[in-house]
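retry 2 of 3: previous attempt timed out while embedding 2-acetamido-2-deoxy-beta-D-glucopyranose. Reduced batch size to 1 and resubmitted. Inputs unchanged:
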Amino acid sequence: MSTTPWKEASTLIIVARASLTQKIGHDLGQNLVVSSRVLPNDEKLKSQKKQTSTDYRILMVKRSNLSSFMASAYVFPGGHVELSDYSSKWWNLFERLGFKRENLTREIESRVSGPRPSMIQKPNILLDVDNETHIGNLLIPDIALRIAAIRETFEETGVALLISPNGGNKQENEIGNTLNNEDLVKWRQKVRENGSAFLDLCNQLNQVPNIWSLYEWWDWLTPISVGHKRFDTMFYLCCLDKQPKVVLDNTEVTNLKWCTPSDIIDEHTNEGVFLAPPQFYELSRLKNLNKFDEVERFAKQREILGIERWMPVISTYSDGAISLLPGDDAYPTKPDIIGLKPVPDYPQTLAQMRSQVVNLNRIELRGPVCTCLCNCKLTCGHLSPISNPSMAPVYSKL
Ligand SMILES: *[C@@H]1O[C@H](CO)[C@@H](O)[C@H](O)[C@H]1NC(C)=O
Ligand SMILES: *[C@@H]1O[C@H](CO)[C@@H](O)[C@H](O)[C@H]1NC(C)=O
Ligand SMILES: *[C@@H]1O[C@H](CO)[C@@H](O)[C@H](O)[C@H]1NC(C)=O
Ligand SMILES: *[C@@H]1O[C@H](CO)[C@@H](O)[C@H](O)[C@H]1NC(C)=O
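retry 2 succeeded.
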């Protein structure tokens, strides 16, 4: 068994162009809300306007209320990495369909020239494999983690991000979902029982996972003492021209939404829809980008600058909790990443703690409701999150 207290995971933010009906329906709904308000203030109108012009939707799935990790939360599709995602047999498939191992390795690795997190440099999942020759034959993490995200997306949503390469040619945004419903149900069951069936599926379809379409986005490690399960999770983002058909598995996930970042953040803030802090933070970053093309351009260009692994450091106060992130003046210089200590509890208020520092990068939690507070320039060219409008009074004091 692995000695590290977390498993590696891979997750996928799927961004798809909004359909016309969604855009019209959304605008109508928003207009009704706006017109029914007594004296809507400028701030609200502005945020409303911004929202209606968002021309893409993000896929969020609701985890089953029986899940052992983040039950009932809305998350991006994803899950833990399996050894089969690293299988050397994937090289055979890629080569058979026209992608030479050396070329593919070079192509994928050369996409990033910035910092690499430990799950790329020294994956935990391979620590138990003691045959060096065998490890040398496995997929590189940059490819294996993408396959894991695509496999988990298939298991949870039925969306198969596969492409039929044509002599090594490929289309970045293509989805070659050629499975009929019956086959989909059958294969999904097989893959869920044993991840290596995903390779069998690809072999049978003569398709490969569309690893090229996934841009590296960020890496989040579950903080200590939040629960017994921890994950080091790679977040990828992919942009699809059309919303693919989603067929839920109704086991791991029981509901889905195609939503704008503002929609789901508002539901979280106003209606208690449960979002875990990393999901909340990433959605708040995406609020900076209203256009599908902007998201795609940003993700592609930012990827070159690399990523860091962030582990939030949590403590509780008289009126809530703070999840500190790197860049915040209060973030410890040497955080304890493997400890089991309970979360410390202090008598101060969130506002008092906020006033003690200049550079903020934190999530404040009041009950389950998150607020991002970030006033510093982030590393790796990344976007700062936009705070929710209902917290504007708090934010304006920064
Ligand atoms: C989980 O959800 C199902 C269906 O919505 C419901 O019947 C059940 O009571 C819920 N269980 C828990 C533990 O909340
Ligand atoms: C692999 O790369 C080499 C050198 O860049 C090139 O000559 C060759 O055509 C490539 N092969 C394939 C199958 O892409
Ligand atoms: C190590 O892995 C290689 C390649 O997978 C295999 O050929 C070899 O038999 C393995 N050696 C041992 C001692 O298991
Ligand atoms: C999954 O399938 C592979 C290939 O058929 C097999 O080698 C492996 O033992 C299976 N794993 C489990 C957990 O059943």
